[in-house]
Amino acid sequence: MKAMLRIIWLLLLCCSQVHAATVEEADAQAAKALLEKALAYYQTQGDKAFAAFSRQGEFIDQDRYVFVVDTQGVLLASGGPSSALIGRDVSEVLGPDLRQSFKDALKVPEGQGIQQADYRWQNWNDGKVEHKHVFYQRVGERILAVGYYLPRATPEQARALRNKAVDALVKDEAGTLKAINSLQGGFLQDDLYVFVVDLNTKRYVAHGTNLRLINTDFSKIKDPDGKPVGEPILKLMSEQDQGEYKYRWKNPVTGKVENKHAYLRKSGHYMVAVGYYSP
């Protein structure tokens, strides 16, 4: 019976991952298609196209929109919330990742076709800063771009963040716990965050989104429906050095209670955990 339930669970997990991949692929295709449409329009209209790119209409598709910057960093057009910055040099007010993406874009000579980059930007649908993937192409002194948001992290990204936290904890225990609790230090990525439990005291010592949980009893943690979460996880970790556990929890990006798949690993007397969400 247990084997059958595990097979069913694996099938459901695979289906959710395939669905997520399909949705992301559709978003990528739509963003690229919108950029190709904008490039074709710019070829015929030149800089006159900026007016069309910057208003509601055919160059806005849900939360996907065209934006244009020149090689000096001045925003020339935008169909999104950044339209308030049109005419300003935005190169110095960008976040570190976006600033680097912009510098990389300038290094690409004209005629290289459509390029890709990743950075974080505010999603005007929910007002939250999220991971964004952008397609762009340089045309003369202009860079035309369209991006789409990736609010959901992958299982691979969750495991990578967990391993990063474990490695950091081994090198600098106090500094790593402080970095996690500061909600900075690279331990908070979109809907991924690290939490750490002291297995001796069974209490949280670090949490990437909710500092109110620090020093509370993890063994008493339950999901929003009242189902125990902490107790079964602690039992699992008493029997092995790493594992996985699935439960229901609030997604900090969407604000909704969703299925969460947590990857767990011991590091000394600590348990380090990171989980990804699926609707």
**How many β-strand runs?**
12
* CATH architecture label name of the largest domain: 2-Layer Sandwich
- At the fourth level of CATH, the homologous superfamily of the largest domain is PAS domain
**What's the helical proportion of residues?**
25-40%
Query: And the CATH topology of the largest domain?
Result: Beta-Lactamase
Please tell me what the overall shape is.
elongated
Order of helices and strands: HHEEEHEEEHHEEEHEEE
Number of domains: 2
- Beta-strand percentage? 25-35%
Protein described:
The protein has helices at 2-45, 49-53, 96-107, 155-171, 173-181, 230-239; strands spanning 60-61, 64-70, 75-78, 115-122, 129-139, 142-149, 188-189, 192-198, 203-207, 242-250, 257-267, 270-278. The protein has two domains: 2-149, PAS domain (Beta-Lactamase), CATH 3.30.450; 155-278, 2-Layer Sandwich (Beta-Lactamase), CATH 3.30.450.20. With 279 residues, the chain is an alpha+beta fold. The strands form two sheets. Strands 1, 2, 3, 4, 5 and 6 form a six-stranded antiparallel sheet that branches. Strands 7, 8, 9, 10, 11 and 12 form a six-stranded antiparallel sheet that branches. The longest helix has 44 residues, at 2-45.
Brief description of this entry?
This protein is an alpha+beta fold and 279 residues long. It folds into two domains: 2-149, Beta-Lactamase; 155-278, Beta-Lactamase (2-Layer Sandwich), CATH 3.30.450.
